[in-house]
Batch of 2 targets.
Target 1
Amino acid sequence: MSVRWLVVGIGDITTKRVLPAILDEPRSTLCGIVTRTPAKAERYRVPAWTSFDQALHEAAPDAVYIATPVSMHAPQTIAALHAGKHVLCEKPVALDYAQAVTMRDAQIATGQLLGIAYYRRTYPKLLRARQLLAEGAIGRPVFAEINCHSWTPPEDRGWLIDPAMSGGGPLYDIGSHRIDVLNFLFGKPARVCGQVSNVVHQLAVEDSATVMIEYECGVRGVVDVRWHSRVDRDDFRIIGTEGDMVLTPLNSPRLQHPGGEESWPTHRNLHFPCVANFVDAVEGLSTVAAPIEEAVVTDWVTEQVLNSHFPR
């Protein structure tokens, strides 16, 4: 079986990771690209369209990878699902929780697969951490802190600082990944509060966000994301009643716990396991790593933060 992919959007992540992953995945075929600039698609030697609706009809894909700005996720995903296509969509799910729910409802109505590209769920290190937590390696987990600090996005990703296109700043961009990591490990959030602010950059979106999540299992999680640090940070630590688990940097193979230190390297292309998992799901061999019914929870958390924060 070969899964025919239509890729929508040809920006930074698409060219560096998504398209190489589809081209390398042996059960996948790239059947077309949707882009405002067809010349960008020429090197892939597949048909290119500027019209999403036309491409859905003419490319005859089995699956659609949506890598457009967040503002387009909901309408494009819903259109693809109702056209009988499976969808793998970039994160975050949508501009807000209400939009995310419309995507979930469309998936339920059509019965097609809908996954969100929270690719860290496929990290061997994160899967191993979840196993160790279940085995009681640090006793009962009670606190988790996960931080990601960097500078503002490069100019070629300028849409990220336009709230009409992105929804928000680091809370949406890098924060959504880390909120999803906590949800993946600890389950359903019960209560959320937080603050967004502009400390260094006066942008139309926040340049920093701090989120506190109380999980039903009793874990308290804190996510801190910033776009005003010249020093990159990618920290993650989980504290339990019997010890700590250190996953810093999150994007490294290193996993330290009371039983020792382990190394769990990722695939050289971080999106490849995400694409391969989705193809497995299409073939009925697995479930989607980040199904829409779980991914919408991150949008719910984000909305609670925006509803609860206080201005500087």
Target 2
Amino acid sequence: MQQALARQRGMALVMVLWVISLMTIMAGSFALSTQREAGVLSHAHERAKALAMADAGINYAMLMLSITDPKKRWQSDGRPYLWQANGGKVRLRIIDEGGKVDLNVAQEQTLKAALKLALQNEDQATQLTDAIIDWRDADDIKRNMGAEAEDYEAKGMKALPQNRNFMVMDELRGVMGISPDLYRKLENWFTLYSGSDGLNPQKASKEVLTALLGGDQGAVANFMQQRQLGAPAPLPPIPGLNTSGSSDMAYSVLAEAELDDHQVFGVLATIRRGPGANGSPFTMLRWKPYHVPDKSHSLQAP
């Protein structure tokens, strides 16, 4: 009898130990889950705060672009600005879209001249010119080195020529012959928002200026220095490329908010002058958030 009671007590003890172990595991799992959820909520809160700061920075940049005093007015040539905000700081860069070639407006010779400068390869420039025009024109007639729907289908490409103007820059990724690396390179050269058949060197990026000036880094540095002073010398004529394009119509604004914990979140916005739907003095054409894992790479378009 005593042996039976001892066995029962032993089994009861084992069961109690199992229950305690199970409850310990459940408690640990719950604590870990709660910790993870708290971390996610904290990250979401910090991200929302940073994006709100970046948005405020974009509005501040547009305000500074509208100042009538040229000495105080911010410039849209890509130079960096720092705006101190409550709870952090926002780094801003404004790029006038007039320094790029409009994909929808550019004529054939303009497209080819810009692509030749960007790629330093005439055959590739000709092929991409034809492919871009085939993408945006309304017919299904294939240009000499272009591509229409059957060519895309033959290569198993899902995106087919739209036979209309480009609606967003990302559509350029779908044009035959445009690789991801090539797209990133052409982003500095092309826009959808200048409305001009050509580009304005006074607003062009350093990369574009380097190509326009034949790779002469000294000439590029001198031009950019004179541009900052407001008196750059005119560029020599570029065959096939109109360099008297418009400006001060649309801008890309990079706004990067750095929080107290040194996390950096950014917004890339494209903005056009003119009344917006919400009564603002400008219209938001594109808004794209991004995270900068290393702040040493900040103020770079994603």
